[in-house]
Amino acid sequence: MKEVSVITNQRDTVFRMLFKEKKQLLSLYNAIAGTHYTDENELEIKTLENAIFMAYKNDLALLIRTDIHLYEQQSTFNPNMPLRFLQYFSEVLEKNYINRKIYSKSIIRLPVPTFVVFYNGQEEQPERRELRLSEAYDGAWVKDKKTGEPVLEKPVNLELVAIQLNINPGYNDKLKKDCPALMGYVTYWEKIRKNKEAGMPFEKAVRIAVDECIDEGVLSDFFKRNKAEVEKMSIFEFDQKEYEQLIREEAKEEQKKEDEKIIAEKEGVIAEKDNRIKELERQLSLVQGNKGDGSF
């Protein structure tokens, strides 16, 4: 069994709290890596203190000798995940691998990274999606003249690919089957959504969902041990999502106003040009009229 360390944020969420448990963590890693390790006692869980990137929620990193797996759960689609993973991976390298040896003639051996996003939001997303850092490069893309599709015009010397896996019901069922804890996590949030759609206040929807999971044997031991904390975290996550949604809506409104301003300015310029053309036409007409009556 490989030696495994786990890096987590100090501020837990339900996802991170669940997968800090050695049994669940090993199950998740096996499901993603296609391995079959069974000795959870060889896992060692550590916390990376005061990492700048770790201000973001839901981050989980598994250091596995020559590999590093970085996982994040998202309930909204975020095209900036490759950039966030790059920021975090750089932080990990800075704290664990970069030292005076960087000036030596010997190459510094680095872990091979894997970046995974577990998506369980309500916006429609494919089962599997690659998110590439190169998609963010400004000025590197042009439209193909034949297909109209964007293509890279400039060579990319720094790429990072994050794999987004849709874990909603009906997606990546084998992955969830291989990791019952992940299936339980999805089931829990689906119960909350259904309770909320039935008209329950969110706090009640959470409490009922926890009780239903315990009664139905869905991560029952986990929920029994952490009932109060899970409920508190879930409500916090919901409040955070509501806040983020508000920020996104405000950003969209600001963008809409900016777009309307730009359109108005363009329309003003066009109107001014039209008026100038009409004035020139009027003056030309006068000139031609004067020529016709023998004035010139």
Q: Biggest sheet: strands side by side, in what order?
A: 2-1-3-4-5-9-6
Q: What does the main sheet amount to?
A: 7 strands, mixed
N-to-C order of helices and strands: EHHEEEHEEEEEHHHH
Helix content: 40-55%
* Tally of DSSP helical segments: 7
Rounded mean pLDDT score: 80
Looking at the structure, what is the overall shape? extended
- Round the Cα radius of gyration to an integer and report it: 28 Å
Number of β-strand runs: 9
Number of domains: 1
Which regions are unreliable across 5 or more consecutive residues at pLDDT < 50?
A: 6-11, 46-58
Strand content: 15-25%
* Terminal Cα span: 102 Å
SS-derived structural category: alpha/beta
Task: Give structural attributes.
296 residues; alpha/beta; seven-stranded mixed sheet; two-stranded antiparallel ribbon; 7 helices; extended
Q: How would you describe this protein?
A:
The protein is an alpha/beta fold. It has one domain (4-271). It has seven helices and nine strands, in the order βααβββαβββββαααα. The protein has helices at residues 14-19, 22-33, 81-96, 173-178, 180-197, 202-216, 220-292, and strands at 4-8, 43-45, 59-64, 67-74, 112-119, 128-132, 141-143, 150-152, 161-166. The strands form two sheets. It has a seven-stranded mixed sheet with strand order 2-1-3-4-5-9-6, sandwiched between helices. A hairpin with a 2-residue loop joins strand 3 and strand 4 (67-74). Helix 5 (180-197) crosses helix 6 (202-216). The model is unreliable at 6-11 and 46-58 (pLDDT under 50).
